[in-house]
Amino acid sequence: MVVFPQLRLRRLRRTEPLRALVRENRVNITDLVYPMFVIEGKDIKQEIASMPGIFRFSPDQIPHEVEDIARLRIPAILLFGIPEQKDEVGSAAYHPEGVIQQAIRAIKQSVPELLVVTDVCLCEYTSHGHCGIVANGYVDNDQTLPLLAKIALSHVEAGADIVAPSDMMDGRVKAIREALDKEGFQHIPILSYAAKYASAFYGPFREAAESTPQFGDRRSYQMDPPNVREALREVEQDINEGADIIMIKPALAYLDVIRRVRDTFNCPLAAYNVSGEYAMVKAATERGWLDEKRIVIETLTAIKRAGADIIFTYHAKEVAQWLPAT
């Protein structure tokens, strides 16, 4: 065994070209998906107070933004919708002229090559703010499944490339797969939020998507943060039901979960660098406490190193300007 002084591991750290030559993990622009918020109305571009640099766009304004995203070579976006009217069953979520359906058509007309991923859930559309149908004060899993399938189908009919159920109802991947296949959309992938934890890191998103529950919380259907083995069961179930890509959410406090899933399953793996993670970095860098570029790249590299193939991040536009072209 070679030991010091012959073995000097610092030799390969001396200059940036040397460090780059032996670098084990890299974040690439092609790894990134940029989440976006679409609000019903016209001529709207609203900055979200708790997420500096992130905006709500009306469907008529979103083409200008996605043209910029395409110019930055970001390959995909994720859409969340905010309707004008909400009701008990979230009917605006699957209306053919809903805010997301309008946005998808506008985006595909403007930048057809951009991959459009759509969030499939009811929470932004229900008057009670929960991710499913409420019956007797409880979110009813099985009553919710047909509506999730209707949402996914309406998104695909509008032109979505990938549908991403985030509701954490049991059986929703199977229900969506069957609905898409029945209508001839066997080619559309499902990206499942397979292990979505009931996390405090979602706070700013609640403001952005106007989706705060009006009673209780989501801990009866989103995962309990201390659990890891349960995440493996959730992922296995979704893969068996037909998920093409699986997602872990949030990312930073759950790097161990990402690693366990990566080591256990051989399928494309995404991780969501969520709103609270973004807001903390922005707050600290605005005060001069952190170097924003370095901390963001380090954060995304950690997510990649843990095993994620795809990273959903609100930092995507900034990162695309910092990274070299590939």
Notable characteristics:
326 residues, alpha/beta, TIM Barrel, ten-stranded mixed beta sheet, two-stranded antiparallel ribbon, 11 helices, 17% strand
Give an overview of the whole structure.
With 326 residues, the protein is α/β, with parallel strands linked by helices. It has one domain (26-322): TIM Barrel, CATH 3.20.20.70. Helix content is 37%, strand content 17%. It has 11 helices and 12 strands. The chain has helices at 16-21, 62-71, 99-110, 141-158, 172-182, 203-209, 229-241, 255-264, 275-286, 292-306, 316-322; strands at residues 32-39, 45-47, 55-57, 76-82, 115-120, 133-135, 138-140, 162-165, 191-196, 245-249, 269-273, 310-313. The strands form 2 sheets. Strands 1, 2, 3, 4, 5, 8, 9, 10, 11 and 12 form a 10-stranded mixed beta sheet that branches. Strands 6-7 form a two-stranded antiparallel sheet.
Strand content: 15-25%
CATH class annotation: Alpha Beta
Overall pLDDT confidence: 93
Taking the alpha carbons of the first and last residues, their distance comes to 38 Å
As an assembly, this protein is single chain
CATH H-level superfamily: Aldolase class I
Low-pLDDT sequence parts: none
Describe how the helices and strands are arranged.
Blueprint: H1 16-21, E1 32-39, E2 45-47, E3 55-57, H2 62-71, E4 76-82, H3 99-110, E5 115-120, E6 133-135, E7 138-140, H4 141-158, E8 162-165, H5 172-182, E9 191-196, H6 203-209, H7 229-241, E10 245-249, H8 255-264, E11 269-273, H9 275-286, H10 292-306, E12 310-313, H11 316-322
Parallel strand pairs: 1-3, 1-4, 1-12, 4-5, 5-8, 9-10, 10-11, 11-12
Antiparallel strand pairs: 2-3, 6-7
